TrEMBL record:
Identification of the protein by name: Prophage cro-repressor
CDD domains to which the protein is assigned, alphabetical: HTH_XRE (cd00093)
Domain of life: Bacteria
HTH cro/C1-type domain boundaries: 9-64
UniProt-listed InterPro entries: Cro/C1-type_HTH, Lambda_DNA-bd_dom_sf
GO molecular function: DNA binding
Length: 81
C-alpha cells in the first residue's frame, strides 16, 4: 500500500516560496482552502493532481508516494489458543 508523502509536498512548496493559493491555481482547484484540505490529508489528492504537484515542485512522482506496511490481523499458530 502506498501513502502520499504530504510532509514532502508541504516542505517543498514552502521552500520554493509557493503559496497554497498558487498551488490551487496551478491545479485548477477553487480556493486555497480546498488545496489546504488536500495538503493536510483531509481530502485525498487525485492521481492526476499528484502528477501535477510533482511537476510544479520539481519532484519525482515516486518520491511523493511512500510505501507503507499495514499490520496484519492474521494470527500466527503460536498466538492462537
Amino acid at each position: 500500500m502506498y501513502q502520499v508523502n504530504l510532509n514532502l509536498i508541504r516542505q517543498t512548496r514552502k521552500s520554493k516560496g509557493y503559496s497554497m493559493q498558487y498551488m490551487a491555481k496551478c491545479l485548477e482547484i477553487s480556493g486555497k482552502s480546498n488545496y489546504f484540505q488536500r495538503e493536510k490529508g483531509t481530502v485525498p489528492f487525485k492521481a492526476t493532481e499528484l502528477q501535477q504537484v510533482a511537476d510544479i515542485l520539481g519532484l519525482n512522482y515516486k518520491k511523493i508516494l511512500v510505501k507503507t506496511f499495514r499490520k496484519s490481523n492474521i494470527k500466527r499458530p503460536e498466538e492462537v489458543s
